[in-house]
């Protein structure tokens, strides 16, 4: 009975839909696709060279303003536009997948089948007409000897 329960538990894990999987709320870029693109800090944008420094308070306040405004602006934009944009991207990739599955792959497969047929006809023509011609030329010129001499 315990083995059957474990089998049923494993079967449920296999049958689970990919839409219900848990997402990682800590590491939100596990494949690191945005590692170098949008990871922008204050030091990456604003820098004061030696000899040209603002007041320390202004520098600290600028850092805080940049960091907090970037944080909250991203949060507000993602809260307002995140779901609609995700819906658009989901729709776009669904359309691309649909076209690829139902149009592109069958079209490529059809072209491959047709090209194999044409390739066989082409090969038959070459074997029928060209092979005997070039064999005859080979036999004609097989007795030709070339000698290279270096004259000084």
TrEMBL record:
Residues annotated as transmembrane: 76-103
UniProt membrane topology term: Peripheral membrane protein
Matches recorded under PROSITE patterns: CAVEOLIN
Biological process according to GO: caveola assembly; cell differentiation; regulation of cytosolic calcium ion concentration; regulation of membrane potential
Subcellular location: Cell membrane, Sarcolemma; Cell membrane; Golgi apparatus membrane; Membrane, Caveola
Keyword Mitochondrion carried by entry: no
Keyword Transport included in the entry's annotation: no
Annotated source species: Gasterosteus aculeatus aculeatus (three-spined stickleback)
Task performed by this protein: May act as a scaffolding protein within caveolar membranes. Interacts directly with G-protein alpha subunits and can functionally regulate their activity. May also regulate voltage-gated potassium channels. Plays a role in the sarcolemma repair mechanism of both skeletal muscle and cardiomyocytes that permits rapid resealing of membranes disrupted by mechanical stress. Mediates the recruitment of CAVIN2 and CAVIN3 proteins to the caveolae.
An annotated GO cellular component: caveola
Name the record gives this protein: Caveolin
Top-level lineage group: Eukaryota
Family according to the record: Belongs to the caveolin family.
GO molecular function: molecular adaptor activity; transmembrane transporter binding
Keywords, in A-Z order: Cell membrane, Golgi apparatus, Isopeptide bond, Membrane, Transmembrane, Transmembrane helix, Ubl conjugation
Pfam families found in the cross-reference section: Caveolin
């Amino acid at each position: 009975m315990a083995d059957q329960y474990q089998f049923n538990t494993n079967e449920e894990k296999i049958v689970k839909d990919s839409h219900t999987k848990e997402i990682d709320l800590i590491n939100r870029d596990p494949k690191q696709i945005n590692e170098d693109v949008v990871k922008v800090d204050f030091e990456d944008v604003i820098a004061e060279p030696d000899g040209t420094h603002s007041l320390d308070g202004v520098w600290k306040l600028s850092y805080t303003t940049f960091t907090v405004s970037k944080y909250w602006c991203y949060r507000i934009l993602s809260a307002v536009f995140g779901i609609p944009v995700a819906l658009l991207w989901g729709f776009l990739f669904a359309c691309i997948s649909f076209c690829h599955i139902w149009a592109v792959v069958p079209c490529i497969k059809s072209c491959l089948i047709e090209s194999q047929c044409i390739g066989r006809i082409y090969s038959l023509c070459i074997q029928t007409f060209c092979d005997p011609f070039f064999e005859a030329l080979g036999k004609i010129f097989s007795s030709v000897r070339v000698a290279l001499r270096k004259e000084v």
